[in-house]
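Q: How would the structure tokens look for this protein?
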Amino acid sequence: MDIFFQIIIIIASLLLILLVFVQNPKGGGLSSDFGGGGQQLGGVQKTNEFVEKGTWTLAGIIMVLSVFLTLRMKPETKVIEKPQATEQPVNGQPGQPAQPAK
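A: Here is the predicted structure in token form.
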């Protein structure tokens, strides 16, 4: 299931890149290619609306699925093992710490 959502995120990202390339940063975009720079025809306006809605929709899909996949991730559980003591006490009593030689 996670792989399916990851594939959708990748496809949505690629489509978003294409839509951003189609848009013109000065407001022209596809409308200037089809209807001229100053004229706003009905079909051209709908093209701009489609590109803008598509951009917001794809960005929303990427955001929602990314948050969803992040919340589904299980935290890694690390098992910390206590180091085993390799030194034997000098005085032979296991509960007493070794005393330095005088």
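The CA atoms of residues 23 and 80 lie 53 Å apart.

The chain has a mean pLDDT of 77.

Upvote if useful.
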